[in-house]
Amino acid sequence: MRCALGIDLGTGSIKAVLLDEAGDLIGRGQAEYPLYKPHPRWVEQDPEDWWRGLCASVHQALAAIDPAQVACVGLSGQINGAVFVDSAVAPLQRVPIWLDHRSQAECDWAEQRAGDLLRERTLMRLGPVNTLAKVLWVKDHAADVYQQSRWIMLPKDWLRYRLTGQVAAEVSDASATAAFDLYERQWCGEILAALEVDVGLFPPLANSPDVVGTITQAAAAQTGLVAGTPVVAGGGDMPCMILGAGVIEPGIISLGIGTAAHATAFAETLDARAFDKLWPMCHPIPGKYAWLGCSFTGGASLKWFKEEFGGSYEALTAAAAAVPAGAEGLFFMPWLEGRATPRPDARARGGFVGLSLGHTKGHLVRAVLEGVVFDLRHSLDCFAAIGLPIGELRIGEGGSHSAVWRQIQADILGRDVVRIATDDLSAIGAALLAGVGGGLYADFATACQRTVKLAETVRCDPERVEYYQRAFERYRRLYPALRDWYRRQKAS
What CATH code would you report for 3-237? Predict the structure, then answer.
């Protein structure tokens, strides 16, 4: 029996999954690591924590098999980190990750210097979430780190270096950085030159399923893998999640509520009309694209509520289920670390609107669940606006585990939704890349047909759909009403 190993570097933990040739999950491992928040708006991680987590999770996944059965390894990872390494590829500092929002001033400067180029080549407005913004901040505020850097790597690419000894990047992860030309599928020298950043700091690029190295003897000793096992380039966590959900043709839309919440769609080509509304990315299938709509702190909003106000997820969602749709006029804005889709705004912040003495904890929880889905609803509207077909809606991740949240998604989105039976979709996507790149699966269609497993269909309720449509019209007016207020707030 041969199998493919997928490793996903998430925000709070790293996961490893093994898929056999039939597409069945035969092994799994997971290890957690901390976030560091030394200052307001700073969110960092230690790459050595990632490596220790990778070794632990891979050992767990391999426990039931002979490691020689692993045909190929693929990695997925959180997008938009920035790992500054020296000539020995050793990290020079802790890594500012995608949640790090310290760089708004650098984004404002970049808009003046290269706003048109960014718009034309990346279809993005630079925001603090992007890797390029973090590079500009380090260049301005930690010049010694910048000057000592030989490479600026994305998180999973540094882990792949630890496995293979080879420095490389790949297009799906790179395409979210704002330093990448989506049309040429290369680092954008024009943008980097305009912003006085050396393009030579970014590693050479490969396609996601390309084999770019093999497991070294040193990595084999620490992970339990066999030296010489091929490793593919892999993908960013969102592109890999797209693949893991089977979004490989027009009309299939995947939605997930994890730390962030997202909606994704397949596309053959780019469309400039989506500028400042959706995030374009290179699909893990070479030559294809994907569109991403995002709420940065979707599932994190419920986690925050749980940690601050107490109760298990089961108890909180049960309380929400006892409250009528609309939480009796209470709204929640899930922008705890800024707004993403449409119109990214790092200054935006979350909050409840419409509180009264009659509202209970259950009302607050239901408003959180609804607010996250209202934010996702924007993404479907943006897909429709650029002519993307919306056929089957597939829901996954933590938000699909709750019956009440599944129903809220169907009712607010106004369509029946199908639950994806498989968790760990980014790790699954990384394993599929390994399976295709390593010859375990003939092609991506075969890989997804064998692996992507769907569960029940959740039917939308026509009465609640009509109610939520009216409520969404009120919700969508909240950000325009508050935008200037956010901008006047002193950065904290």
Answer: 3.30.420.40
